[in-house]
């Protein structure tokens, strides 16, 4: 089988460090100290990375730290404005979904979750800037292999449950709400089962803790593997694990990816027709099985069922947070009430309330500015797809932005665009 991952160039210290780091980037349920949720292994590597830059990677040290200081300056500016505003202008936190905390709801200034969520996002930012300045083609195979390992372990857990009827996870050690995984049954309270065609199975979640988080994590690996034209078996394994997560995030991402490829003319008409015909044939043969999947992934998300969060609840959370933002004073509408204060069921309104309209615009610009709208290059089209799939999934279905894999791929796209701009000039 074809494999385009072989690169024989000599590895430097930045490459070797990333190779070790790469296998932990998609993993969020294996931690160094089980009682400390923030000791995720990928975060440990992230915290070490600035020291590596200081000691050994001096050529880009100035630009690297300039970016970190610029981020810190903007972030602290929003913190100062929001917390000062909270101290002089009363805001009620009664009618909005707060990030869980032991603090009283009456505490408006420097809530614990502001510091807590800042510590969660910091490793992601460190990952972003390390990748932005040091990514190269020698990393590609390790990124694909890490995604492949992540998918294989997820499929192992899925198969283990099919055979033995219990969770086979032997790596997860993260503690949830003061309980260990044995007390909660498998990987924690987010362990989810589904009945498809009369077969009870575990929704694939791997080492991410929850199926939708698995889908959000593995999706860019799938697109990246296609972009690099790697062994078809690798792509199949990653792809089937995505589907078995039964997550709406995958449905959104794959439809969007397919639309982007069609828009840029990367899917020939004859293959498109063949694809449609094959899907019709597969549907006719496995109608009952597919109907159950569609019902769970789409219908149950739009209408209330006992087994899924309803579309009504999602809409309520979105509009509740949006109306809460509309009722704020002008300063809080522009700069937010503080990062890490609230968590809706979507990242858009979570961001809007926490960092305000200006913060939301800055974040959107920071991510979307990397899109190359006018291009015919397969690499750039897939980079566009990675950004759009991650961004759309994040904004409408995933209220968390701290996942290292998100920042890994944003960093890769930024690195590639910088290099292309340099060579073009």
Cα radius of gyration in angstroms: 22 Å
Mean pLDDT: 83
Beta-strand content = under 5%
| Number of helices, counting only DSSP H or I runs of 4 residues or more | 16
Unreliably modeled segments? 178-189
Query: Helices and strands, in N-to-C order?
Result: HHHHHHEEHHHHHHHHHH
Q: Class by helix and strand content?
A: mainly alpha
The order of strands across the largest sheet is: 1-2
Q: Tell me, what's the shape? A: globular
Quantity of strands, as a count:
2
Q: Main sheet, how many strands, which sense, barrel?
A: 2 strands, antiparallel
State the oligomer. Answer: single chain
Helix content: 55-70%
**CA-to-CA gap between the ends?**
38 Å
């Amino acid at each position: 089988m074809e494999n385009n991952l072989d690169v024989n160039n000599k590895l430097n210290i930045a490459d070797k460090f990333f190779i070790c780091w790469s296998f932990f980037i998609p993993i969020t349920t294996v931690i160094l100290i089980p009682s400390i949720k923030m000791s995720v292994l990928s975060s440990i590597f992230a915290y070490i990375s600035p020291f590596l830059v200081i000691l050994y990677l001096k050529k880009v040290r100035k630009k690297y730290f300039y970016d970190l200081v610029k981020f810190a300056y903007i972030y602290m500016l929003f913190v100062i404005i929001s917390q000062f505003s909270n101290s002089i202008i009363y805001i009620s936190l009664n009618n909005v979904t707060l990030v869980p905390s032991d603090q009283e709801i009456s505490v408006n200034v420097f809530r614990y979750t502001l510091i807590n969520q800042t510590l969660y996002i910091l490793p992601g930012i460190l990952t972003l800037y390390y990748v932005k300045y040091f990514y190269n083609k020698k990393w590609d195979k390790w990124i694909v292999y890490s995604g492949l390992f992540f998918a294989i372990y997820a499929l192992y857990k899925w198969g283990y449950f099919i055979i033995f009827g219990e969770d086979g996870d032997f790596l997860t050690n993260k503690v949830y709400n003061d309980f260990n995984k044995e007390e909660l049954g498998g990987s924690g309270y987010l362990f989810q089962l589904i009945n498809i065609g009369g077969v009870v199975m575990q929704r694939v979640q791997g080492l991410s803790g929850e199926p939708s988080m698995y889908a959000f994590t593995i999706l860019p690996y799938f697109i990246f593997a296609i972009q690099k034209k790697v062994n078809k078996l690798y792509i199949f394994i990653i792809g089937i694990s995505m589907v078995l997560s039964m997550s709406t995030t995958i449905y959104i991402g794959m439809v969007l990816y397919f639309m982007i490829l069609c828009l840029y003319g990367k899917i020939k008409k004859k293959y498109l027709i063949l694809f449609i015909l094959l899907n019709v044939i597969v549907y006719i043969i496995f109608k009952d099985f597919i109907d159950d999947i569609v019902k769970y992934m789409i219908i149950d998300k739009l209408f209330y069922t006992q087994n899924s969060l309803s579309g009504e609840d999602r809409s309520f959370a979105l509009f509740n947070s949006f109306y809460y933002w509309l009722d704020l004073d002008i300063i809080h509408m522009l700069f937010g009430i503080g990062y890490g204060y609230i968590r809706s069921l979507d990242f858009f309104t979570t961001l809007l309330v926490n960092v305000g309209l200006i913060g939301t615009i800055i974040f959107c610009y920071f991510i979307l500015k990397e899109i190359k709208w006018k291009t015919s290059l397969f690499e750039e089209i897939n980079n566009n797809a990675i950004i759009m799939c991650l961004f759309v999934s994040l904004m409408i279905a995933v209220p968390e932005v701290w996942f290292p894999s998100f920042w890994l791929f944003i960093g890769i796209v930024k690195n590639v665009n910088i290099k292309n701009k340099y060579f073009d000039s």
